[in-house]
Structure formats: C-alpha cells, structure tokens
Amino acid sequence: MNRKYRKPLIAGNWKMNKTPSETKAFLTQFKAMLPKGRGCDIALCVPAVCIPAAVKAAKETRISIGAETCSAFSSGAYTGEISAIMLADAGCKRVIVGHSERRAMGETDRDVNAKLHAALAAGLSPILCCGESLEQRELGVTQEWIAMQLKAALRGVEAEQIRRVVVAYEPIWAIGTGHTASPEQAEEVCAQIRTILRKLYGGKLARAAVILYGGSMNDQNAPELLAQPDIDGGLIGGASLDPEKLIRILEAANQ
Ligand code: 13P
C-alpha cells in the first residue's frame, strides 16, 4: 500500500454467517481489542438482519458497517430485496456490489452497474468486486476479463463519484479455498486495475483509489499481501469472523 496517496481499508465480508446476537457479541470483543488511535479504515459488511445490531455496537467507533448487496431499484414490487436507500437509512456506510458469489447466483454485469449506481445515489460507498475464474487465469485472459468487468460496472459513474468506490480484486479460485493468490499475482492485477482506473478517470483519481485484495486473506499472509504497492487493504471472508484474526490483520495494515 502507498500511504502517501491513500488510507488502507480492512473490510470483513461475513457472507451468510452470524446471527444478530452473535454480531453483538463479536463487536463487544472486537471493540475491546481495537488498537487505540488512528490507523486504517475498518468496515464490517454483515448480513442484512445483523445491520441494526452492528450499527448500534459500532456507534462512535471507527468501524463502518456495510451490507453485502443491495437492490438495483430504489423501491417497488421486489419481494425480499433491500434498497440502497434503506441500507443508508439503517446506518450503513458501505455495500459490497458484484461479489462473485452473487454473480454465480445470476447477477449480470448490467445488474452490477445498476447496483453501483443505486449505492452511489443513496450516498453509500460501494466495494465493487471483480475477479477471474481458474479457467480464465489458465487461459491467460485475466487482464481482459477484469478490464471488461470494471468497464461494465463503472459505466456512467462520474469522476466525483469514483472517489467513493473501492475496488476489490477477488480471484474466484482463491475465495474460501485456502489458495491465496501470491503477493506477486495479487499485485499484478491490482496494478492493472489502477491502470484501468487511470484510463477511465485520470492519474489523480487513480492514485487516490483504494484497491483491495480478497481471497483466503488471513493473519498469516496479510503482511506480505499488504506490503504490495497497489494493494491498499483486504476484503476478508472467513478470517473476519474471528475477532482475534481480524485484529492481527488490522495490525498488519497499520505497520
Ligand atoms: P475468504 O476470505 O473466506 O476466502 O473470502 C473472501 C471473500 O469472498 C471476501 O469477499
């Protein structure tokens, strides 16, 4: 990470884990262990039903609460969906958009673009996910795939909105598998993402953009990954469920 231009972000993605009571218990423990003073930004993206408990417990701390997805629409007959406006009103500051697990459930690039716009319009800071499959990596089309995903997701996003967007590179083959990308592999794609942002929005905004790596990041491999110049933090699944592991990752980011 390059602290001169950007502040690191450590974000947890709890996926479909923890109940509201477990959320409260996690935050009680996590807050007690949080290093004092400034340091990197911290976000917890939690299941929708856990948002009220998380927002309450994170009040007056530097932990921002986020959701794991949002609707592409602002309101209407979409049974079971939750709009970005509702999330913002519930106290969320962030929302994950375009996670590969949601894309696997049928979310298209057009949906991701619409959700990104919905999140920005509601005043949220989206964490936009992109990443290639093992097949795409082996075929040598990672760079083209990531460029396509980013260009499609960012269509119509203005320069002053891009400041609020965090991009997370999450190779699908590394998610939940224990096979982390090597620091060099992760850095290569994160640097490419910055180049794409530079082409779309210019050097100044690209330099300020926060780019995360996600995929089996844990307290063991975080120091090396976070030492890469274009990796500004992590989007952490499994390891974010354990307060002690998450604290150790935070400490690595604060080095
Ligand atoms: P894991 O850290 O469990 O591999 O999950 C990564 C992820 O998908 C975060 O969004």
Key structural traits:
255 residues; binds 1,3-dihydroxyacetonephosphate; 8-stranded parallel beta barrel; alpha/beta; TIM Barrel
What does this structure look like?
- Helices cover 42% and strands 15% of the residues.
- The chain has 255 residues and is α/β, with parallel strands linked by helices.
- The chain has a single domain, classed as TIM Barrel (Alpha-Beta Barrel), CATH 3.20.20.
- Strands 1-2-3-4-5-6-7-8 form an 8-stranded parallel β-barrel, surrounded by 5 helices.
- Helix 1 packs across helix 12 and helix 7 crosses helix 9.
- The model has no long low-confidence stretch (mean pLDDT 96).
- Bound molecules: 1,3-dihydroxyacetonephosphate.
- The site of 1,3-dihydroxyacetonephosphate has 14 residues, from strand 8.
- 1,3-dihydroxyacetonephosphate binds next to strand 8.
Q: What's this model, at a glance?
A:
By secondary structure, this protein is α/β, with parallel strands linked by helices. It contains twelve helices and eight strands.
